[in-house]
Each structure stands twice: as C-alpha cells, then as structure tokens.
Amino acid sequence: MVNHGISTAALFLIAGFLVSQRGTRLIAAYGGVQKVAPILAGTFLVSGLATLSLPGLAPFISEFLVLIGTFTRYPAFAVIASTALVLSAIYILWLYQRMMGGPANHANDGMQDLRPREIAVVVPLIALLLLLGVYPKPALDIINPAVEHTLTTINQHDPAHRIAEGPVK
Hints:
By secondary structure, the protein is mainly alpha-helical. About 75% of the residues lie in helices and about 0% in strands. α4 packs across α6.
C-alpha cells in the first residue's frame, strides 16, 4: 500500500499539472506533449511505469510479494491478478502513447514544462519509487513486524513457514 500510494500520488500530481495547464481532462485533447514539455512527459512515464509494477520500481516488489503469496494458496486468483496486471500495462502504455507521443496537438503549443516548485513536489516521489524499487529493506523492516503482530493477534501462522516445513499432516 505504501508503494501504491507513492506511485498513484505521483501520477495524480502529474495529471493535475496537465489539467491545470490545458484545462481539460480529455485524453484526445492531448498529443505530442513530450515535444513541448519533456520533463513533464518523463515524470509521467516513470509514474505510469511504476503503477504497472515495472521491475526496478517500488511497486514491483509489492506486486511480486503479493502474487507469490497468493499463488501458494490460491493459484487461480494469482492468474487473474497477473492478467489484470498485463491489462493495466496495456492501458498505461496506450495512455502514454496517446497523450505524450504521436503528432503534436497545436493546442499544446502554449504548454510549459514543469516549474521548479512542481519539480520539487514530484522529484521526491520519483526518487522514493526508484530507491524502494532497488532497496526495499527500509519499508519491509517496518511492515514485517506489523504483519507478524497482526498474525499473532488473530492466532494465524505465516503460511511460508508451513511450506518450508513440508506438508501439514
């Protein structure tokens, strides 16, 4: 949830920057934004790739752990979740292609790239996505004790331990 919060916060901020400049939320109204605002397009790309859990970005670790945990007990649901991940990747890449790439929409000619204060807001989020994607230990060190406490409170055991010990008789 931490990684999802960071990636969606970055994506929503960038979407807000786009809407505030153009005054429209219609995807068709954009096109060729990367030609007039390359930093905006780059941050949109990194945030979009993070939301689809690209390896090397923080949400990948989360999705991978969830899918591995789900697959050990509910393989059918893991397949459904993996399919949803592929569909979200298709959507995000299609969205980026339509809005940032392609022929330039002349209505975008007056767009400005990210201003310094906007960069100051987005860069820490992008940095966290990269840092936690390469080195997730700080977040896991906080999350794991909370999960263990919750499991103890509800008298459950970590299923990974049972798998390591062999089948239950």
